[in-house]
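User: My collaborator sent over this chain with a note saying "see what the structure looks like." That's all I know about it. Can you take a look?
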Amino acid sequence: MQEIKIFLLSDSVGATAHAVAQAAAAQFSNVEINYQRFPFVRTTSLLNTVLAQALKDHAVIFHTFVDRQLSKSVNAFCQEHHLPYYDVITPALDTFSEVTHLQPANHPGTVHALNDNYFDRINAIEFAVTYDDGKNPTGFLTADVVLLGVSRTSKTPLSLYLANQNLKVANLPLVPKAQIPDEIWQVDPKKIFGLTNDPEQLNTIRRQRMVQYGLNPDTMYSNTDKIKEELAYADKIFKKTGCLVINVANKSIEETATLITESLGYNEANQ
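Assistant: Without extra context I'll predict from the sequence alone. Here is the result:
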């Protein structure tokens, strides 16, 4: 298998360069990618050290420098030494400058500033942790999103992912014969989302989970007939609440989250 080393350079955290590189690399399944991030590169001396290492390692460079001088230095170095590179941010900055007839502020890390939006996100994450797995039913009444589903339908990771989009999420595991909190019936059905899965896939997920715990995978927890009973019970609850039901089989967390935010009319890009 072909291996590629990618250096992610930035005068901020480098998350954007990483995301772009990963999105492109995902289309090349037969290539092994080794990412190495170099955040907060804000001096020429540090940049030159990193570039020298990149040349030595024959790395591909993805960079997001808002400092024009550093950006030009990287591009010039790569062109001179025939090192593959991708300047992620400069074309976008140039586009905005062309449209607005203004020059960019060139302040690294502006998108990660500790503003109200940042603290709202922290609060949303704390909310998701506090009201995970129905630990406190009162959370359902103040949540932006309520997730219902049987075990291993990605309720917790989805809650945290949505929290990173500033949404307060509470979730409840659905277990046959267990009491459904009264608060659930007081929630606007538009805020409730039922998560389901295919029995066979849920069986595989649960078996793998048991193996990870060092336990016997062949239990009632992973029994296909038992899983079908759980899913049928969950479906009754979904219909009773009138919520939107999402089958998470073969869906990533990102895909499921997008279905939820679109249903809510929530535009992540404006947050």
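A starting point for your reply to your collaborator: The beta strands are 2-10, 31-38, 60-64, 85-87, 145-149, 169-173, 192-196, 244-247.
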